[in-house]
Amino acid sequence: MTKKEKENNNQSKIHQHTKMGKSRRNRDRAHRSDPVGKPKPAPTDPELAKLRESKILPVLNDLKASDPKKRTSAAGAIANIITDQKCRKLLLREQVVHTVLTETLTDSSLESRAAGWEILKVLALEEEADFCVHLYRVDVLSAAEHACNSVLEALKSSSPVFSKLPKAQQGFIWSIAHALSTLIGELGQAQDEILKAVTANTSIARFLFGLTSHSSTTAEVLSSALTCLMTLSEDNRTLCEMILNDQETFCYRNLKKLSESGGLRGALSCGVLHNLFSALEWHDHSPGLESACDAILVPLLTREISSARLDVEDTHWDVLQTTLEVLASIATNLQTTLEKGNKAEDEWEGIKDDEDQVMDLDDDVDDTVEDDYMNGDEHSDDEAAGQDDDSEMDDEELMADMEKVTGADHEPEEPAHLHDLPTLSNFLEAAVPSLIRITSSSPASEEALAIQGVALSVLNNLAWTVSSLDFSNGENATVRKVWYPVGCAIWEKTVAHILSNDTADVELAALVTSLAWAISRTLGGKTPVHGDEHRKFISLYKAAKNMPEPAQAGEDPFQGLGVKCIGVLGQLARDPCPVGVNREIGIFLITIISAATEVPTADVVEALDQFYDIYGDENLACDNEVFWKDKFLEHLEGAVPKVKSMVKSTDKRKQSELRLRAEEAATNMPRFIAYKKKHRPS
C-alpha cells in the first residue's frame, strides 16, 4: 500500500465520532501539584477563610473524633457538602482524602464507610483525571478490593440472608456498591496503567460480575456497574475474555439477557457486548457464540429509539444518549467488519478511502431522474410544505420514502440484499429511519439538542464507513445499490433540513457538514441537491471564520469546519453536476487557493486536492465550459508563489502532517498546470 493509500484509508476514521460516554483521559497535560498532599496555608480570600473556619474545620475535626457517632455524622455531612465547589477545594486543602483513606474507610461504622466512598466518588467525578492518578498512587485499589469483597460477602451470605438485613444496612451496602462502581470506572479511564491494574484485580471483576447477576441489585447500582463494565471493556481483550469465561456468575449470559430488557440497563448491556464483540473480533464474517456479533445488537438498540421524541419533557434522555452512543460506535466498527470481510471473500477486494471514490451509478440510475435532482433549482410551495411534514412521518413511512426517493427508474432490476453483511443491513433497514426522524426534528431543549447531535454522529459514522468502500469497477455493487436511496434520504431529510435553519451552533454545523461530506463522497455529482444548498456551504465557510473552531479542530487542522465545507463543495462539483453549480464552486475554490497566505493552510490544501479532482478530466463538460472559459489556469498559475510561501511558513516540527500534505499539494500544482496546458482545447 502506498503512502497516499494509507493516508486515504484513515480518512473515514478521522471524521468519525466514536466516543461512548467519556473517553479515557490519559492525555499529556500539565498536572497540578499533588491534590491529596500536604495541607495548604489558610486561604487569603475573606469569604473562603470564613467558610473554612465556620464549616470546613469543624466537620473535619468531627471526622477524626473518638466518638463514633460524631465521625459518622461528619462523614455524612462532608459527603453532602463536597459537591459544592468552594467546599470541595477547601476540603482538599485540608487533606480530607488522606483522612478518608486512612480512617473513614476503615471505620467500624458501615454508615461512615459508605459516606467515605461517596466522598471519593464525588471527588473523582468532579476533579480532573490527575486526581484519580493520585488516588491510584496512594493505593486506593487495595481499599477498593477489600470493600468489593465485603459487598459480595454480604450479598452472598446465607446467615443472615441479605434480604433479611435491616433496610438501613442494605441501603448503606448498596451505597458503597454504587460509589465503588463509579469510582472504579473513573479510575480505569484516567490512565492506561490504572486500567491494566484494575483489569488484573480479580476481586474487582468478581464484584462487577456479581452486581450484574444478583437478583436484588437496585436499578441505580446495576446501571453504575454496567457503566463501569462498558468503560473498562473498551479495547480491553483481557477483561472481555474474563466476561466470556466467567463460570461463577455467567456474566456473558446475564449481559445477553439484560440487553433484551430495554431501558438504560438494556442499552448499557449492549454497550458492553459491543465492546466484547469488537475486542474478540466477532464480526459478520466471523461471529462468536450463537452467531453473536453487532448485528444482534442493532435491532435491540433501534427498538429504544424507534418511538423517541425530542419534544416530550419526560423523555429518558440518559437512555437515548447511551443508546445512540453505542450505535455510533457500532457504525464506526463496521469499517473493521468490512475490512475483515474483504480478506475473507474474493468478491471483496479491500477498503480504499480515496477522495475519488464516488459511486458509478450510470449502470443503475436513470439519467432522466438524475436531471430532476440536479436541475430542480426551484420547488413549489407545496413541495416545501411537504418537506416540513416529513419530520412528522413515522419510521415505516420514512422507510417507504427512502425506497422511492430516487424514483421508480432507480430501482435495481433485482432486489438488493446484504445477507453477508447483517450488521450493515440491520443498520440501514432498522436504525436509519429512526435516526433520520430524530435528526430532522426541531429540538426544543438543551437535552433534545444534545440528543440530535449524537444521532447525527451515528449517521456521520455510518456514512463515512460506507464512503471508505471501493466502488470502482463494479466493486461492492450490492452495497452501492442499497446505500444510494439511503444516502439520498439522509441528505434530503436531515442535511437539507438543518441547513435550512441556518444554525449558529458551531458543533452542530460541523457535524452536519461532516455528514454531508461523507454522503457526497459516495453520491458525488448525483447528490440530490435542490436549489442553492451549495451556496449554504459557501456561506457557512465564510461564517466559520467568526465561529470558534469545533473541539476536534484543535488537535487536527483538517477537522476544521472550513475544511469540511470545502470537502462537501468539492464533491458536489463532480460530474454530472450542472455547469452553473460547478462554476460557482470552482470560483469559490480558486479564490481560496489564490489567497493561500491569508487563509488557513489546511483550507488551501483541501481546496487544491478538490480542484485537481474536479478538473483533472478534460473529457468532462466542466473542463471547457468552466475551467477554460473562466480562465482558471491563469488564476492557478498566479497562486503558485503564494502556495510555495505558505508551505515554507508551516512548521515541520509542530505541524508535521499539515506540512506533509501542503508539500504534496504544492508539488502537484506544476504537474497539474503542465497537464492542463498539454490538453488545452483547440
TrEMBL record:
Basic and acidic residues compositional bias, start-end: 340-351
Basic residues bias: start-end ranges: 14-30
InterPro entries xrefs: ARM-like, ARM-type_fold, SYO1-like, TPR_SYO1
Biased composition (Acidic residues): 352-394
Region Disordered, residue ranges: 1-51, 340-394
Single GO biological process annotation from the record: ribosomal large subunit biogenesis
Domain called SYO1-like TPR repeats: residue spans: 427-679
One Gene Ontology molecular-function label: unfolded protein binding
Family note: Belongs to the nuclear import and ribosome assembly adapter family.
Protein's name in the database: SYO1-like TPR repeats domain-containing protein
